[in-house]
Write a structure and sequence with these properties.
Elements lengths: L5 E12 L2 E12 L3 E5 L6 H8 L7 E6 L2 E2 L4 H5 L2 E4 L11 H11 L5 H11 L13 H14 L4 E5 L7 H16 L3 E6 L2 H7 L2 E6 L2 E7 L2
Parallel strand pairs: 3-8, 3-9, 6-7, 7-8
Antiparallel strand pairs: 1-2, 1-4, 4-5, 9-10
Helix pairs in contact: 3-5
């Protein structure tokens, strides 16, 4: 597979807390249509890097761009085309899954959204009228995944998306991700599961103690 357009460009990105580097001088380029793995143990700096990309926190040093736009100064424009699944899913507890899907569809002005919602509800075996407060971690993750997919983002950022998912649902998720990749969606997949990365990613960066150890081509 041949990629030419850089979707994410990171140069010397660093985040320090009390002069201690949580992420230290990392540089990456992720291209259009890639499923790019970001693998490392818990505490390696994966989520911190993602939070800087999404402008949830500011970098201490370095730059990051998405779609050629600066992640700090042009964050609002970037987020219109980015889907995100957090490692720790949080929604208003009184809402149902369907409430969240309808809100997402309305926010992004999606047409014919109910058909797509129904397809994903069936695929991921979601109980649409059950309140979030009654859902397990895995079921909350499924809701977040569907909400992120609904908008058909150019870039999908997934932070440990399979935590809590049963093996069948994991398999269905990766079937969807591989199809979306073939259609041109770029997928940035953070994980601590080496098998997951090896089975589904085109390339991967290995991070430990906030530093990139290697970037490898896989598939």
């Amino acid at each position: 597979m041949f990629f030419v357009t850089a979707i994410i460009e990171i140069e010397g990105l660093t985040k320090q807390y009390n002069k201690v580097s949580v992420v230290n001088q990392i540089s990456l380029k992720i291209n259009e249509g890639e499923i790019f793995g970001f693998i490392g143990p818990n505490g390696a700096g994966k989520s911190t890097t993602i939070k800087m990309l999404l402008n949830f926190i500011f970098p201490t040093e370095g730059t990051a761009k998405i779609f050629g736009k600066d992640c700090v100064n042009e964050s609002v424009e970037i987020k219109k085309e980015v889907g995100y699944v957090s490692s720790d899913v949080r929604y208003y507890q009184g809402m149902t899954s369907m409430d969240i899907f309808k809100y997402t569809a309305a926010f992004h002005h999606l047409s014919n959204s109910q058909r797509i919602i129904d397809k994903y509800i069936q695929l991921f075996e979601i109980e649409p009228h059950k309140k979030i407060e009654k859902l397990s971690l895995g079921n909350k993750k499924k809701v977040a995944i569907v909400a992120a997919l609904l908008q058909e983002p150019k870039l999908l950022i997934l932070d440990e998306p399979t935590n809590g998912l049963d093996p069948m649902i994991q398999h269905r998720l990766f079937d969807v991700l591989e199809q979306k990749s073939q259609e041109g969606m770029t997928i940035f997949l953070s994980s601590h599961d080496l098998h997951e990365i090896q089975a589904h990613c085109h390339r991967a960066a290995f991070i430990k103690n906030g530093e990139i150890l290697a970037v490898e081509t896989i598939n």
